[in-house]
Amino acid sequence: MINNTEEFDYEQLVKATQSFSESRLVGKGSHGSVYKGIFPQQNDDLLLLAVKRASFNVDNINKLQNEIRVLSSLRNHHHDHQNPHVVNFLGTSHDSGFKENKLLVMEFMPNGSLHDLLHVSSAAPPPPWKKRVEIAVQISRAVKFIHESNPSVIHRDIKSTNILFDSDWNPRLADFGLAVSQPDSLSQIQPAGTIGYLDPSYTSPAKLSTKNDVFSFGVVLLEIISCRKAIDVSRAPSSIVDWAMPLIKEDRIVELCDERVALPPHMEVAVGHILRVAARCVSEEEENRPEMAEIVLMIDKYCNFMERVRFPIWTTLLGMLVKKKQRKSVKESDVGGEISRGKMILREILAELH
Ligand SMILES: Nc1ncnc2c1ncn2[C@@H]1O[C@H](COP(=O)(O)OP(=O)(O)OP(=O)(O)O)[C@@H](O)[C@H]1O
Asked: What pTM was computed for the model?
């Protein structure tokens, strides 16, 4: 065991992936390939692994080492009672002395990526609005978690292909190949990321900050709600940000929503709110973008509030009105009191949000 993670025997991983066979290849990334590994455990259960191997060149091997270092530092800050919505790091291959034999072992995510869910029609039916809000909340928590870890981690490649679903269909932030943790010699790290998600103001090493991730997260929020790709050359404007910003400013919320799934009227306020948060995240000026902690508060609190208030207050009201009819003895002021309590909570929360 190293840093609470397991060291896997290299030969066992070779066996688990059938010698990195094509049939076990899950996908190829810019610096390596991921294979599905089937690993027998002592209790006869089978553990499904995702085993990442660098493509053979020094640069790619260094990127994999970096990913291992970052994931292992995050794992040390991960409290068991919380799900940080970061891909579960399980360990590495035992150090054989050959750098190129270094493997990254993660929990296997069997349900594909957010990109597949949104854009590949054969993958699954388009997600309902409640699920989209949940994904937004959970990923915002993941990004806050990495930013607030010690050392703080900046992901630099937040995008829908790097958000994977676990066996319970919970989203997890993955692919820390470009991630930077704060004690790194920041001045030497050249800007990197993916076009469409990349913060336009991140133009030099000195501009590296958590706000770069906030921008990319804002693009993902727009993508979740609209189901438009970050860049779609078949449309004008091709950039999701350029398309969405004027519509959000004019409050044309319904036009921004994925039309394949009808937006229930009770979700309109929550979705409009998420879109306004997204607009702040993709502001051109970095200082206008909120920090992730604020974003989590804004999305989480508001969306929880919608869940809590929509039912309790109105069901209470309904219940009271029914009782009133039955007993004809409920005083008007009781119902009025309940309504004004509901209005007061709503006012308090809205005041905090604006
Ligand atoms: N833990 C995992 N479980 C299942 N599949 C995974 C896991 N991690 C990565 N993958 C899949 O493996 C493939 C390669 O992933 P990787 O993170 O190396 O690169 P990428 O995100 O596709 O590309 P890039 O590195 O260019 O951003 C992708 O299809 C990804 O969805």
From this structure: 0.85
